[in-house]
Amino acid sequence: MMVRRSTKSGALMRAGKWCAGISVVILFSLIAGFQHFVLTLPKTPPDAPARADGIVVITGGQQRLATGFALLQAGRSTKMLVSGVGNGVNKAILARELGLDHHGTSLFDCCVELEFQAGDTRGNAVAAQSWSARNQIRSVLLVTANYHMPRAAQIFTRQMPDIGFIFWPVSPDDLTLENWWYQPPILRLLGREYAKYLAESIRRPG
Question: What distance in Å separates the CA atoms of residue 92 and residue 71, rounded to the nearest whole number?
Fold first, then answer.
């Protein structure tokens, strides 16, 4: 009996050590992956192609909208979709928030479409797919925050495999990545986005 108990106890200890070792490896892998995610957040490519058939802006901050509209004004495209706009918002309100003059307001009125149904990034991609099909768009300049772009790129390319994408990440003014690990609000924001990015990475299409 003593021998059996000793053998069983030894097996449990070995199994416990093995599980603990695996847990440590997984933990360090997640930490290393998170650090890599933050340190390699995309930047606007200086050699990005000059034009696309359409611009898609994912809402989530005025900087995204301002950047997308600046690209439209610069002639990077002739059409722009703003996806995920809140109820009660209209073009006049957004033009006023952007501080547009008469010419800018006219361009916003004629060439920008607002989309109100999308509630998440996958909804943004579905809306963009429908908009692209209606407007015979084959290439899209996608504008969103830099921390959101890795996941958005996965979702949009999966949803719209026949569309050519130019990814245009925006670096929010309030997202300071210097010493980011000492700033709890930024750490939480990036941690949540990294978790969503990992979940999207292992999600099966369909």
Answer: 19
The span from the CA of 112 to the CA of 68, in Å, is 10
The first and second tokens of residue 8, run together, are 């069983």
The pTM score is 0.84
Q: How many CB atoms lie within 10 A of CB 35?
A: 13
CA dihedral 180, 182, 188, 189 (to 10 degrees): -20
Strands laid side by side in the 80-83 sheet = 112-115, 80-83, 54-58, 139-145, 164-170
Planar angle of CA 26, 202, 22, nearest 5 degrees:
15
Question: Can you read off the two tokens belonging to residue 184?
Answer: 């709890």
Query: Which domains does the chain carry?
Result: 54-202 (3.40.50)
Please answer whether residues 56 and 140 qualify as being in contact, where contact means their C-beta atoms are separated by less than 8 angstroms.
Answer: yes
Convert the pLDDT of each residue in 72-99 to its tens digit. 999 999 999 999 999 999 999 999 999 9
If DSSP codes are grouped into helix, strand and coil, which group holds residue 58?
strand
Name the band, by pLDDT with cuts 50, 70 and 90, for residue 1. Answer: very low
Q: How far apart are alpha carbons 156 and 2 in whole angstroms?
A: 62
Taking every pair of Cα atoms in the chain, the longest distance, rounded to a whole number of angstroms, is: 91
Which DSSP string corresponds to 99-128? T--HHHHHHHHHHEEEE----SHHHHHHHH
